[in-house]
Amino acid sequence: MSQFLLFPVFFPFLAGPFAYWIGCWYEKARNTFVMSAAALELFLVLTLWTKPELAQATAAVEGFCGLGIQLRAGGFHTLMALLTATGWMAATVFCREYMAHVHKQNRFYLFWLMTLGATMGVFLSGDLFTAFLFFEIMSFTSFVLVVQTEEYPALKAGETYLAVAVIGGLAALTGLFLLYHQLGTLSLDAMAAAAAGAEDRGLLWVGGLLVLVGFGAKAGAFPLHIWLPTAHPAAPAPASAVLSGVITKTGIYGVLVLSTTVFLHDVQWGLLLAVLGAVTMVLGAVLAVLSVDLKRTLACSSISQIGFILVGTAMLCLLGDHNALAVDGTILHILNHSLIKMVLFPAAGIIHLTTHSFDLNDIRGFGRGKPLLALVMGLPMLSLAGVPGLNGYVSKTLLHESIVEYIHLTGEGAALFQVLEALFLFSGGLTLAYMLKLFVCLFLERNALPEEVLARKWRQEGEHYIAPASVGGLLSYLLVMLRLGTDPGAAMDPIAAFARDFLGGTAPAHAVDYFAAVNLEGAAVSAVIGAGVYLLVVRTLLIRQGRYVDPIPPWLDLERGLYRPALRVLAQAAIVLATLADRLAPRLLFHGLPRLFQRLRLWWAGTRDRLLLSLTGEVYSPRPTVEQAADDFHFARYEDEPRRLVGFTHSLAFGLLLTGLGLVFGLLFILLH
């Protein structure tokens, strides 16, 4: 049984190609096989709970890439594995209904199962190297899920997703090298002690910040949150559900590892996370209020909720040995956000199957006369807004109380955290505002088009607008939310206790009275703010001539307004520097060897052209000098429109993919030799 943990990680990798092969012959058999594979994965994870001998199981693949693969179960690892397995199972049930309308399903299910295995590998990792290894595999396999439809928005979203993933991955890899150099280990059990005795804290911070960039980017934290608002709307609804509900939590997992080992109780690290969390929390909520797209609103909501989790992570660092509330709140908000988004994104997909749109002006009034859909979407919306009696209220109360506790402990010098508390309550109010916006639009307002026009436009296939299997899965999630929220002391506190060891927390000094007046006061403040924002902003400023509008100008888009122009400038600067080096270097450095240098340049140009020929199938004329290469759009080109030549997208994402693969193979060569 010592190697049992290898099965939930590597079984999906084996099942994926087999599902693809079955699908080539018989589609229904493939669907059954994928469903069975997801069910077996859930059974394997449940075994970790039911078998006492597996409660703290470990497994290893020694020698892989030098450091080996280390896996472990127990506590937070098992909780996240169960969250992953149940989420994938529910999303797979919904796939049968949704993916019937999507082409190239064999490819989707291949990478669907491989992404499951990679995600499981992250959460069951026993060291930071194993987490990074599966984290990068997950980034590339989930990229295929984002671009599944191959429509223009999906390709654009995939380009951004891949660019952020590769940049973040390379930053994290560099950080891991620095941490390993300083600590001599990447084991989760040994990193804290090694970091406490590290001599060069500056280099430790550099490594930690680089790893934070990599994992924070996947979590959707500011300023690398740009992939979330585009990838979620573009991906099929089941993929959006796991992207938001599960995959973003792999980034949070990496941040938690750093915060509970290398920077355990580090005040400066806690302040950094508090700032990042506050900006992410408020920014995501503002973007969600202004959005006019259903799935984009839910995606921006995910950004905001990741900000709440980062604030909790910051507080568990700042509070030190008094961090029980912050630890429990962080664990439970990870759980609650996953449960909520595993309902809301499939529900959005159900609406899309009939309306063929996510635009609020197109789907307006779709839910009128559909009480089941109103229940399925209404309860998670209220839960995410922190309404008492639902699970989201419990975790937000704990996070809020951790901020209040820090203010009391630090006394008069806590002005900054009083601002943080105000932003926390304000963001909670914005959550209610954008959820009210969605609910009123879908279930209370009427569409401007006549009923006969809507009947033709909203083409419903089959007798019901939602499949019975999907209804069963979504209602199961609702029952869990109600059970957790109505009796948190009996249902949620044990979950937090089960997982808190991973975060270095201890049991609270006394049981939390979640429905005490002081806790209900915070929820009431957020509710008043939310109602005010909805009435004064949404109803008066964001609806013009009977249509919802998005007032954000294009130049405020970070990706198009800052990142892309900056990369263009860097590319042009690189061309100028390369040109200067090409002209000056032979005179300054190779004056005595002009023929040799010229031959080296010609050799490089020929090698480059042969590589491009093998990749694209196109013939390029020899360009022996760098200034001539600047005329070729393949050279340091980054543009807004993706170019597709023989199946390849010549863009930043494509160039980064090649660079990343080259670095990976180079590192593998070094590590294996």
Could you explain how this protein is built, in words?
With 673 residues, the protein is mainly alpha-helical. 71% of the residues lie in helices and 2% in strands. The protein has 26 helices and 6 strands. Strands 1-2 form a two-stranded antiparallel sheet. A two-stranded antiparallel ribbon has the order 3-4. A hairpin with a 2-residue loop joins strand 3 (543-544) and strand 4. The radius of gyration is 26 Å and the shape is globular.
Sum this structure up briefly:
The chain has 673 residues and is mostly helical. It has helices at 6-23, 27-50, 76-98, 105-123, 128-146, 152-183, 191-196, 201-219, 228-234, 237-260, 267-290, 294-318, 324-355, 360-363, 371-384, 391-410, 415-444, 451-457, 468-486, 488-491, 493-499, 517-541, 558-588, 594-616, 626-629, 652-672, and strands spanning 58-61, 69-72, 543-544, 547-548, 644-645, 648-649.
Task: Based on the model shown, name its key terms.
single chain, 673 residues, mainly alpha, two-stranded antiparallel sheet, globular
**Residue share in helices?**
over 70%
Which structural class best describes the helix and strand composition? mainly alpha
End-to-end span in angstroms? 32 Å
In terms of quaternary structure, what is this? single chain
In round numbers, the mean pLDDT is: 82
Unreliable runs: 618-650, 667-673
Strand order of the largest sheet: 1-2
The outline comes out as globular
The total beta strand count reads 6
SS field, number of helical segments: 26
Beta-strand portion reads: under 5%
Largest sheet geometry: 2 strands, antiparallel
Round the Cα radius of gyration to an integer and report it. Answer: 26 Å
